[in-house]
Design a protein that fits this description.
- This protein is of the alpha/beta class and 394 residues long.
- The chain has 10 helices and 17 strands.
């Protein structure tokens, strides 16, 4: 049967770790959710023709391309999905928006505040013509995180007083792990701070509805030289061989900072890729006047909830298994009790993006939201350099 729904034709730039995750989402979302638009995976773009052809076949794209600029000339491309290192986000996104293409851009939005401001201005100008842009803070779409936000909005934990957020990994704890683009400031913008710290900044602001307004932080690079990678080494989580040549690490390995939030809460943040034994631990705890919420991505289908309004004799953290049809996004998936995984957040991102585009609305988080996170990152860097509290530009 021929569908009467309009088609959203997608082109993706970059096909490594994030490209594979985004491809999975574009393939899967229309098969589990009743989307208001059909999705067509038209073309994937990469620098190497042979590898891009292989990626197109493996990931489900119709065609391969080696020049992202040619994507913007195509009438059969409605949206450009940017999965490249941060140094190219601004150029691709701004050009795509000016060409009338919707944009989904991986986080952090850019490598600098100035680039993020240019991207946001381009997005706001494009929005006047119905062209939309979204930044991919995917962890917002984890059902337990979405439930946490809902409980805060319902007033279940009252006035927010404390926010604690950690993102802990260990993939470069070995000092002999080879260099990758994520350890080069010219490509990545920053290290643990921007790569993973950006996520927990966004998550705490998303859950609480409050913005970080002031920070006091410290950055540290524990290993300042590493072996140069031999051949194509994954830029995502290390791996591959190394040569005897050494390269300079020009980003932070770890970041810690204190924060004030707009509603009066105090925040404590940590992002590190040197937490030995921690693979992808995103830990969020929010304490309020009426209760608390706690989440750890390494147990991602669970949200812990403490209700201080209950009688004392039955108070305690409640372990909520977020796998019921009543929970955000879950009804489209498996029977109750059957957990979801890392890839499902990307699928939910596609669902929310396509739904917003079909309605003519602004998908969230917007480039303006991405710019706000970029300003927090910049304030932490300034604070580390000056050993002082720094305001976050509003």
């Amino acid at each position: 049967m021929t569908s009467t729904r309009p088609t959203l034709s997608v082109a993706m730039v970059g096909h490594a770790f994030m490209g594979a995750a985004h491809s999975q989402a574009w393939r899967t979302a229309p098969r589990f959710f009743d989307l208001p638009m059909q999705v067509a995976m038209r073309v994937v773009c990469g620098r190497d023709a042979a590898r891009t052809e292989q990626a197109a076949e493996r990931l489900g794209w119709d065609e391969a391309e080696t020049d992202w600029r040619r994507l913007l000339e195509r009438d059969d491309v409605d949206l450009v999905d940017i999965c490249t290192p941060g140094d190219s986000h601004a150029e691709i996104a701004i050009a795509a928006l000016r060409a009338g293409k919707h944009v989904l851009c991986e986080k952090p939005l850019a490598n600098t505040v100035a680039e993020a401001e240019e991207m946001t201005a381009a997005a706001e100008a494009a929005a006047e013509h119905g062209v939309r842009a979204m930044v991919g803070f995917t962890y917002r779409r984890v059902p337990a995180i979405a439930l946490a936000r809902r409980l805060v909005q319902q007033g279940r934990i009252g006035e927010i007083r404390h926010v604690r957020a950690q993102y802990l990994q260990d993939w470069i704890a070995d000092p002999e792990a080879p260099m990758s683009w994520r350890l080069d400031k010219t490509l990545a913008g920053s290290g643990a701070l921007g790569d993973i710290g950006a996520h927990v900044i966004d998550l705490t602001q998303f859950i609480t509805g409050e913005s970080v307004t002031e920070v006091s932080g410290q950055l540290e690079t524990f290993v300042k030289e590493r072996p140069i990678a031999a051949g194509e080494t994954s830029g995502s989580l290390g791996g591959g061989g190394a040569t005897e040549e050494r390269g300079q690490v020009t980003v932070d390995d770890a970041a810690v900072f204190l924060a004030h939030l707009s509603g009066g809460a105090l925040g404590v943040y940590e992002a590190t890729r040197f937490a030995t034994g921690r693979k992808n631990a995103i830990r969020i705890e929010v304490n309020g006047s009426k209760g608390s919420l706690a989440f750890d991505f390494e147990d991602m289908n669970v949200l812990e909830f403490f209700d201080a309004t209950e009688p004392v004799e039955v108070q305690g953290f409640r372990r909520i298994l977020v796998t019921e049809p009543e929970h955000p996004y879950v009804a489209a998936w498996w029977p109750a009790g059957h957990g979801l995984g890392y890839e499902h957040g990307f699928t939910h991102q596609v669902v929310d993006l396509v739904t917003a585009l079909a309605a003519g609305g602004q998908p969230e988080p917007s480039f303006a939201d991405g710019l706000q996170v970029q300003r927090v990152l910049a304030a932490v860097e300034r604070s580390s350099e000056t050993r002082s509290w720094q305001p976050v530009a509003q």
